[in-house]
């Protein structure tokens, strides 16, 4: 194995891929993982489309997968076993301060510290400490200002619009990327949703300068709004619910059609195959929409 090959099979910080995305006016998708099938489907799609990718892990998913070290072992094994050569970052999603430290210790290449529920001074203080640790280890760090609406892993956000001055203060601490609430929410969007607040996004962009911005709650935001958000400085878009919906719909169809009762259709590898294909299709659709195809 030559040096390049070795390097290609390693997790990377999200910094370089996001700066390239910002400069190239596209966005890199963060797709949350829940198990081996999710991870494999996302990695294979990124490789097939020659796209950089960020694997997101919530604290709840971390517990579900038996801890952060299990995940690091699984993902590193897959990079080699599937010969994945596109840039891949393994990223903690909405981490508490403690979880952020645990993921750094376990070998994640990127972390999000969500201090949005703290008073801004405390958010700044904790983020500052993590900036120092991440810089020493060459990891990327995402910070958040202004809670994102909806529910994720039991964390209920009120959907505040982030204050541009607070965004500026956090972005100047040296974080890699900034998540700022602009009316986006986690999970399915309600029918009376007002849409993204582009006026707020523009103000945040003007206040924060060149830092790549992150859009959470990517499921169900209309395509034209996604494109406009990218044009206004969003370089990372998080997708979670949409893969869950497509996986579950495909799995339900398999069972409802009685396929599990035909021949060896009960084999878990067969049962989970349609769901995996559905995740691949969703990830492909998002990568095409975000413009990251061919940008590895
Ligand atoms: Zn989020």
Strand content: 15-25%
CATH topology: TIM Barrel
User: How widely separated are the two ends?
Assistant: 21 Å
Strand order of the largest sheet: 1-2-3-4-5-8-9-10
Low-confidence stretches: none
Bound molecules: zinc ion
Shape: globular
What letter string, H or E per element, gives the SSE order? HHEHEHHEHEHEEEHEHEHEHHH
Structural class category: alpha/beta
Number of domains: 1
Mean pLDDT reading? 93
How many E strands?
A: 10
With helices defined by DSSP (H or I, 4 residues minimum), what is the helix count?
A: 13
Largest sheet: 8 strands, parallel, barrel
Just name the CATH architecture: Alpha-Beta Barrel
Describe this structure in words.
By secondary structure, the protein is of the alpha/beta class. The protein has one domain: Aldolase class I (TIM Barrel, Alpha-Beta Barrel). The protein is 49% helix and 16% strand. It has 13 helices and ten strands. The strands form two sheets. An eight-stranded parallel β-barrel has the order 1-2-3-4-5-8-9-10, surrounded by nine helices. Strands 6-7 form a two-stranded antiparallel ribbon. Strand 4 (110-113), helix 7 (120-137) and strand 5 form a beta-alpha-beta unit. Helix 3 packs across helix 13 (273-290). The radius of gyration is 19 Å and the shape is globular. Bound molecules: zinc ion. Zinc ion binds at residues 94, 148, 152, 186, 216, 238.
Which key terms come to mind for this protein?
296 residues, alpha/beta, two-stranded antiparallel sheet, 49% helix, 16% strand, binds zinc ion
């Amino acid at each position: 194995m030559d040096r390049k090959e070795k390097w290609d099979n390693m997790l990377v910080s999200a910094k370089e891929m996001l700066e390239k995305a910002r400069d190239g006016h596209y966005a890199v998708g963060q797709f949350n993982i829940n198990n081996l099938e999710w991870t494999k489907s996302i990695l294979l799609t990124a490789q097939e489309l020659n796209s950089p990718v960020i694997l997101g892990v919530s604290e709840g998913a971390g517990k579900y997968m038996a801890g952060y070290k299990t995940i690091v072992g699984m993902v590193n094994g897959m990079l080699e076993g599937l010969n994945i050569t596109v840039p891949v970052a393994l990223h903690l999603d909405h981490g508490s301060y403690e979880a952020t430290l645990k993921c750094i210790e376990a070998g994640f290449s990127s972390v999000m510290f969500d201090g949005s529920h703290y008073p801004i001074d405390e958010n700044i203080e904790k983020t500052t400490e993590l900036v120092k640790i991440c810089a020493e280890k060459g990891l990327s760090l995402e910070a958040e200002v202004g809670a994102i609406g909806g529910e994720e892993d039991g964390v209920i956000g009120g959907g505040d619009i982030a204050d541009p001055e607070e965004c500026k203060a956090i972005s100047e601490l040296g974080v890699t990327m900034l998540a700022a609430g602009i009316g986006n929410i986690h999970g399915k969007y309600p029918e009376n949703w007002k849409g993204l607040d582009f006026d707020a996004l523009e103000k945040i962009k003007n206040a924060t300068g060149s830092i790549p911005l992150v859009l959470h709650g990517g499921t169900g935001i209309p395509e034209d709004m996604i494109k406009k958000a990218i044009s206004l400085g969003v370089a990372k878009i998080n997708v979670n619910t949409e893969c869950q919906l497509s996986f579950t719909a495909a799995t339900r169809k398999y069972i409802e059609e009685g396929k599990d009762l035909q021949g060896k259709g009960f084999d878990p590898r067969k049962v989970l195959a349609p769901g995996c294909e559905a995740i691949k299709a969703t990830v492909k659709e998002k990568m095409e929409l975000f413009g990251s195809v061919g940008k590895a």
